[in-house]
From TrEMBL:
Residues 13-77 form the Transcription regulator TrmB N-terminal domain. This is TrmB family transcriptional regulator. InterPro entries: TrmB-like (IPR051797), Tscrpt_reg_TrmB_N (IPR002831), WH-like_DNA-bd_sf (IPR036388), WH_DNA-bd_sf (IPR036390). Gene3D superfamilies: Winged helix-like DNA-binding domain superfamily/Winged helix DNA-binding domain. It comes from the Archaea. Pfam families: TrmB.
């Protein structure tokens, strides 16, 4: 294995350069001593013990007592399991710290926010924008997490599904109603059509309760909305207006918590779903 390949594989562990180098060589050498590892890796002897202590504290290696001490790596599967557990514990610690500050934070900043928001018009409150990509995907994952009843998706091919699948799967496991409105594959470019086919087949096999249809006409916008209500008492959405001449990385997505606006989006979804979709599944081999 090349050093570049090893570095790429170790990258998710979020180690320092010395820690990566030490762990890589430990996995190759097996049990060894700090002086020998220092010589093999080029890590200065003044630093090697601190590096090994950090790896041991993270649970990635065993320390065998003796004169001198020896260090043995854990099996790769155990290293990854421990990395996941370390991240989970760090998340829970951060979450608890944030929750502990909630009451005081809201009490201190709530009145300031209300005062500063008094002059904002209803139109200005309709939505705010985020960049398409990581920011819009982050907002979309939040919608899935906050959905109380249902999630509706309007998309060409659902090409970003991998980025939001954990949130999608969680909503599915919580028995939220999930509906996906795709675009007729005949209206897609061949590359998008291939992606759409893969996603549809994956949804069928992995999330059989998910309902999906194909819009017979072009979609003026794409996005995700949750819990639309004609009572205007719930509903949030992230949407992207179709702009074919604008590169995706230059577009912005609108995020709205306006329940009336989301109700309108919900009506559009229902009308398209019920009256403007293909009669048959284009990927149904039966």
């Amino acid at each position: 294995m090349s050093s570049h390949d090893a570095e790429a594989l170790l990258d998710p562990l979020d180690l320092t350069e010395y820690e990566e180098r030490a762990l890589e060589h430990l996995l190759e050498l097996g049990r060894t001593t700090a002086p020998d590892l220092s010589e093999a890796t080029g890590i200065p002897k003044a630093r090697i013990y601190g590096v090994l202590d950090e790896l041991a504290d993270s649970g990635y290696l065993k320390v065998i007592p003796g004169r001198p001490k020896q260090y043995q790596p854990k099996p790769p599967e155990e290293i990854l399991d421990r990395a996941v557990e370390n991240r989970r514990q760090a998340y829970e610690t951060d979450r608890a710290r944030i929750e502990d500050a909630r009451e005081e934070f809201v009490a201190a900043f709530g009145p300031l926010y209300e005062q500063a928001s008094e002059d904002i018009s209803p139109t200005e409150e309709l939505f705010h924008v985020v960049d398409v990509g990581d920011p819009s995907e982050r907002e979309t994952r939040t919608l899935y997490a906050e959905a109380q009843q249902e999630v509706r998706v309007i998309t060409k091919s659902f090409e970003y599904f991998d980025a939001i699948e954990p949130a999608f799967a969680d909503a599915y496991d919580r028995d939220r109603t999930l509906r996906v409105l795709f675009l007729d594959p005949e209206l897609l470019e061949p590359a998008n059509r291939s992606v759409q086919r893969e996603i549809v087949e994956y949804l069928r096999s992995t999330y059989p309760a998910v309902k999906y249809r194909f819009s017979a006409t072009r979609l003026p916008w794409r996005g995700t909305l949750i819990d639309p209500s004609l009572e205007y008492d719930s509903g949030d959405a992230v949407l992207l207006v179709e702009e074919e001449d604008v590169p995706l990385h230059k577009r912005q997505a609108a995020v709205t918590e306006n329940h009336s606006f989301v109700a309108g989006l919900g009506r559009y979804f229902d009308l398209t779903w019920n009256h403007d979709t293909l009669d048959t599944d284009p990927y149904d081999s039966g």
